[in-house]
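Hallway conversation turned thread

IA: we were arguing at lunch whether anyone had actually written out PRC-barrel domain containing protein end to end. Turns out nobody had. So, for the record, here is the sequence (77 residues) and right after it the structure tokens. Reply here if something looks off.
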Amino acid sequence: MVRDFQDSDKGRSVLTADGTTIGHVQGVDGDMVHVTPETDLDTAIRQTLGWTAEDEEVYELPHSSVERIDDTGIYLE
């Protein structure tokens, strides 16, 4: 089981399961983190995450999308 998000997760990298960095945590709100995506994030990854709105600078990522959290970052399923 993946631990809950914590305030200390701010600034942590968010990565795909294969280790590609997709963004960084800007804030924590319960079972959701707010992520600033990498500027060169692949369109296919954005679509998979539902991060397709052009005018957004920060996107929400639910805890249910996380496979693990460790010292190097938050890894998605």
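OS: looked through it. Helices lie at 43-49.
IA: good, adding that to the notes. Strands lie at 13-15, 21-29, 32-37, 59-62, 66-70, 73-76.
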